[in-house]
Amino acid sequence: MDLPGAQAVFRSESMRRLLQMVERVAHHNAAVLIIGETGTGKELIARALHFHSLRGDQPWIDVNCGALPEHLVESELFGYEKGAFSGADNPKPGFFELASKGTLFLDEVGELEPKLQVKLLRVLDGVPYYRLGGTKKVVVDVRLIAATNQELDKSVKEGRFRGDLYHRLSQFQLRVPPLRERKEDIGLLAEYFLAANYPEVELSPAAAAALEAYHWPGNVRELRNVMVRAGALCSNHVVLPSDLPAEIELSEPQLSRAATVPPRIGSIPFSASPMPPSGGGLRDIKKQRILEALARHSGHQGLASEELGISRRTLSRQLKHMREESHPGSDSLGVLSQRQQNYFRSTLEVPVKVKTSDGHEFTAEATNVSLGGIALNKVPLEAQNALTFYLNFKVPGIETLVQAESEIAWCSRDGHAGIKFLKIDEGSAADLKRWILQKQLEEGWTSLK
To answer: What CATH number has the domain spanning 345-428?
Structure first.
């Protein structure tokens, strides 16, 4: 993926899935929180969100909250008027005003002091604000993307970060995996950094093996610095293990299972195969009960564990086991708020039988579906004025037909239409919700706890 002034270099499945999420999320105006260890490339993901959004040709403003002096943060973010403080000889717009119509990226957002967290929350809610020392209200139209290497949910529990702001920032949450979880990218990135700085230098197989064996606490940033140094120090235009720092040169491949199975955020991936039939093995029945409980509670593990009569810790342990059974290399890379879960659209390409309130009957083609509606192709012009559509269609893995009473939300002359569900029978709604949750998990999404 090429971006203005940057390039995403990867071959790992986890990064491919993450960038697919980026393209899906980019078209929304909702705030996004990007989490990940230092050096993983959170700003690159933020830039990709901006570049692929409808605001891509509007201003991009990035701010490192941790690098701003504490006494200047408010004036830099929200601006100030002449005379607001000693040295304010001229008025100055803040970063929010500079980013108007575009995107404001707040890196290290966890460093903001409580007073500014309140003001930021109000701006995110669309409330006008005053410049420092100002008397006129300022209104901005900004898409906010924030990033942190801290565990903000832990900071919320400890009272260091506002819970309401955390949930407001986490309308979408994306996780950038550390380099140790995507070892197949290490050699590719190392060669990329060498080519960018020393085009004539090559990476020896032994050095590549040493790089892959190292745990990379500083992630991509550390790898870049190592390769720039190694390219400068090597002889005969080949990087050998001896050209690498001692801790990398002497590192050995980790053969333990703990090193080959990366940690996950609490979600499980499921295959697209149908749920096991009742009467199957005890393990299959347990799987089905867990998935159904998660679906009923929109993926919330705490509520699902209560319904199942087990502790949350036990549920997490069972989910981990099911994860490793289904897709050993699949990580949770994104978090959806409850509202975003309800509007999540999954690709669905099946025939849909339609009967309208004014007597038309035809078969359309579905393109995607959410809990609230379905997108159709091949809707005849003469049927588009009907008040009500009665639909039935089959979803892969669900035995019964989904039946819904619906209305057109939008349509076009070429037969495309967005259909809003008005009534859907209870069984169909439960099956559809479970299926969409399964698709969310397969893509790497989990729910905001």
So the answer is: 2.40.10.220
